[in-house]
């Protein structure tokens, strides 16, 4: 008897291979979809942490602007004013009868690129000064420049007696930390220090191999000494107010200022600053002036006729991206437009991988600039 041969027919083999390939393809597709979802979720979580934590850190610092000054009102002519707009060398500093009225003491002359700047108010400086670095352009394709915000304040000092309360020769002034993380501490025999902090975009040298000139929001802090209040601050008391006029011991420079600073928010493509101002505008000749509040760019504010209005608040806007790319995710479009405060922007053409981006903004009331002060 002939024995039957056992096995698969060609048709059965082809069907089984086809079914196997379909199952394998479905598994691969499910895996790829899961990977893309993980990348998107990781990018969103990282973006939220970077943007929100960084913005909260900046907000806390900016609320210090104008702290312990003798004048609550802030404008470009307020000596020691919380928003640093002019120095003695600025072209748009107000001058009357040969006397200039800058925000910084007239004895301190710094480059315009180390003051609050925006748009093309002045020519940009050279790094690590303000260079207007930005990865954004307007809807017509014109490159934009990021802004720079500079504030100053007299910290809330107390005295550290150094465990020797009856001996004040070793006492030190203590006033917290500046935006670079440096402790504010110095000998009580020295003059008090007013701190100056600037927020700006610069290139981050710590970058991945597939990134092209990534930008980060950094803060550069310095200080200048003013007056001699030695012995005027009790250990549990408040800081004295800055005198309304420059004292005899006039400062001549801002120490440790003008460097690259410390990064406080990674991967920021554009940074925008608006000044919230209070101005009195008469509706008609027969009616009294009505108080109005509006937000202006730094350039537009300095373009107003002096005396310029009082600054009451600050708006910050930043276009932040994730540090991890999301591959070829179709939901992330290269031509996407973003609204950053008063600007509609899009990204410059780049060969970088795709990233998740988000606009974060914050309005900060300058509580040290509200009300009146003698």
Automatic annotation (TrEMBL):
One of its GO terms (biological process) is type IV pilus assembly. InterPro entries: N_methyl_site (IPR012902), PilW (IPR032092). The chain crosses the membrane at residues 6-32. It comes from the Bacteria. Keywords: Membrane, Transmembrane, Transmembrane helix. Pfam families: N_methyl, PilW. This is Prepilin-type N-terminal cleavage/methylation domain-containing protein. It comes from Acinetobacter indicus CIP 110367.
């Amino acid at each position: 008897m002939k024995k039957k041969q056992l096995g698969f027919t060609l048709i059965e083999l082809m069907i089984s291979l086809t079914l196997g390939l379909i199952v394998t393809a479905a598994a691969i597709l499910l895996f790829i979809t899961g990977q893309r979802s993980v990348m998107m979720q990781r990018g969103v979580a990282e973006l939220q942490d970077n943007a929100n934590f960084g913005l909260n850190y900046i907000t806390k610092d900016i609320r210090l602007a104008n702290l312990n000054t003798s004048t609550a009102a802030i404008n470009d002519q307020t000596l020691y004013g919380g928003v640093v707009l002019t120095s003695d060398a600025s072209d748009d500093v107000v001058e009357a009868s040969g006397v200039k009225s800058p925000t910084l003491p007239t004895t301190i002359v710094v480059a315009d690129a180390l003051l609050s700047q925006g748009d093309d108010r002045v020519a940009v400086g050279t790094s690590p000064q303000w260079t207007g670095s930005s990865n954004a352009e307007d809807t017509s394709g014109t490159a934009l420049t990021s802004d720079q915000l500079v504030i100053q304040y007299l910290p809330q000092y107390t005295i550290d007696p150094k465990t020797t309360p009856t001996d004040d020769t070793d006492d030190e002034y203590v006033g917290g930390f500046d935006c670079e993380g440096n402790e504010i501490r110095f000998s009580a025999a020295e003059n008090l220090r007013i701190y100056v902090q600037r927020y700006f975009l610069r290139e981050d040298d710590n970058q991945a191999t597939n990134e092209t000139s990534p930008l980060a929001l950094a803060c550069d802090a310095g200080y200048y000494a003013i007056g001699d209040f030695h012995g005027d601050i009790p250990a549990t008391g408040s800081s004295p107010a800055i005198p309304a006029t420059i004292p005899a011991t006039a400062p001549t420079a801002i120490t440790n200022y003008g460097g690259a600073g410390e990064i406080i928010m990674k991967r920021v493509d554009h940074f925008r600053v608006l000044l919230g101002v209070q101005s009195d505008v008469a509706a008609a000749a027969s009616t009294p002036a009505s108080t109005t509040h509006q937000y202006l760019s730094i350039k537009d504010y300095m373009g107003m006729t002096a005396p310029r209005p009082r600054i009451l608040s600050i708006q910050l806007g930043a276009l932040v991206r994730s540090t991890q790319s999301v591959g070829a995710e179709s939901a992330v479009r290269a031509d996407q437009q973003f609204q950053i405060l008063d600007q509609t922007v899009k990204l410059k053409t780049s060969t970088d991988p795709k990233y998740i981006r988000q606009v974060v903004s914050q309005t900060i009331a300058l509580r040290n600039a509200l009300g009146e002060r003698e």
